[in-house]
Specification:
The chain is mainly α. It is built from 17 helices and 2 strands. It has one domain (2-391). The longest helix has 37 residues, at 87-123.
């Protein structure tokens, strides 16, 4: 009984502390990345800072690995290797968790688009459309709306960036949710963890190379990253001798930064490598980081600085409504950016004002959105993660 209580406590710590903190910091990084895209002829020191804010795709890769980890965690810890309540319950729970905030954010985006179009037509407001920046696009077609409603807008380069661009990853993750119980888990149970990972990457990359880039806009390789998250959960809690030996022997804390550096190197344009390579190394780094943090917590070791960062109460609080922040920030950042562009401020004043307005405003809009459209649809366990409790 004491062992079961300890394991339950460990799982709660994993879910309520460093996982939430990592998710929250990744979401905040995405917000800052999208603001940074407006930077132009700033001083050299600001441009150098800006070079560290070009990896928004890595933050999304972190989200996908986290999803694989969290969904696999109860399966890996169970003795059956199956979803605890069956496939239909799993689909219902995923639907309640993902869809209500998604559709609310889509409606929010469409309403703001109507307002912006009104400003353009009746008040001659100048709207700056650019492929380099702008995550919100008020000019859209009926096809854009329909594909967003069906969560298939990520399958085409034409519809993927329309309306609220960050939503493409929600569609990709939604599609991965069906691969998890119908494909990855059966392969995992029958052939083992590494077969599941190889199968995930093979299935994801085959259409890209065999069908002339088909499914590349959807970042199909994220299915492989999801499998890496599954691996982190399985290795972290498995009782299988081979995986237990890996958990105890490999230097996860060293492998994580090594893989991340490799991911950064693969992003160099001069190398001309496919995008899935850098994302995959980032996924490997994230999986190793999760295994390292898990191992530290389970073994009760001294908390390292990286884990202190993820368990910081403000990071954990941010993680509580990070999904809402991710869904709504693109609209906020783009609208604020367009208003500031119309003011024709000097570069330093522009970027300083942009950060001082867009970041707090994104948070102020995301949190009430979370309370109204996300929290009511959470499980009872997740509802207990009150933001005010995390920071008190």
């Amino acid at each position: 009984m004491q062992i079961l209580k300890s394991e339950k406590s460990t799982e709660q710590r994993l879910r309520l502390h460093y996982l939430d903190g990592l998710r929250g910091l990744a979401a905040l990084y995405v917000v800052i990345v999208h603001i940074n895209r407006y930077m132009g002829q700033e001083p050299v020191f600001l441009q150098l800072i800006g070079k560290t804010l070009r990896y928004g795709n890595f933050a999304v890769a972190v989200f996908i690995v986290l999803s694989g980890y969290v969904l696999m965690l109860p399966v890996a810890r169970s003795q059956s290797g199956y979803l605890s309540r069956g496939l239909w319950d799993y689909i219902q729970r995923r639907s309640r968790r993902i869809l209500p905030p998604y559709y609310a954010a889509l409606l929010f985006s469409l309403v703001i688009a109507i307002i912006v179009l009104g400003l353009i037509k009746f008040f001659h407001f100048q709207w700056h459309e650019s492929p380099q920046y702008g995550e919100f696009h008020p000019f859209f077609s009926p096809i854009d709306v329909i594909t967003h409603l069906l969560l298939i807008h990520n399958l085409s380069r034409d519809t993927l960036p329309s309306i609220n661009a960050p939503m493409w990853s929600v569609a990709t993750e939604w599609q991965i949710y069906f691969f998890f119980p119908l494909l990855l888990l059966p392969i995992w149970r029958r052939f083992g963890l590494f077969s599941a990972i190889i199968s995930a990457f093979s299935i994801a990359l085959a259409p890209i190379y065999l069908l002339n880039g088909f499914l590349e806009p959807a970042h199909s390789w994220f299915l492989g990253l999801f499998a890496l998250g599954m691996a982190a959960a399985d290795i972290g809690f498995s009782q299988k001798p081979q995986l237990t030996a890996m958990r105890k022997s490999l230097p996860w804390g060293v492998l994580a930064p090594i893989f991340f550096v490799v991911a950064l190197i693969t992003e160099w344009q001069a190398l001309g490598l496919d995008r899935w390579i850098g994302d995959s190394f980032c996924g490997l780094a994230t999986a190793c980081l999760l295994m390292y943090c898990t191992k530290v917590i389970v073994e009760g070791k001294k908390v390292p600085p990286v884990l202190q960062l993820f368990e910081n109460r403000w990071a954990v609080a941010l993680g509580g409504f990070s999904y809402s922040l991710y869904l709504t920030h693109g609209v906020v950042v783009t609208v604020v950016g367009n208003f500031l562009l119309n003011l024709q401020l000097p570069p330093i004043n522009f970027i300083a004002t942009f950060y001082l307005v867009a970041v707090p405003l994104s948070l102020l809009i995301a949190y009430p959105f979370y309370l109204v459209f996300e929290r009511p649809f959470m499980s009872n366990f997740l509802k207990k993660r009150e933001v005010k409790d995390a920071v008190s």
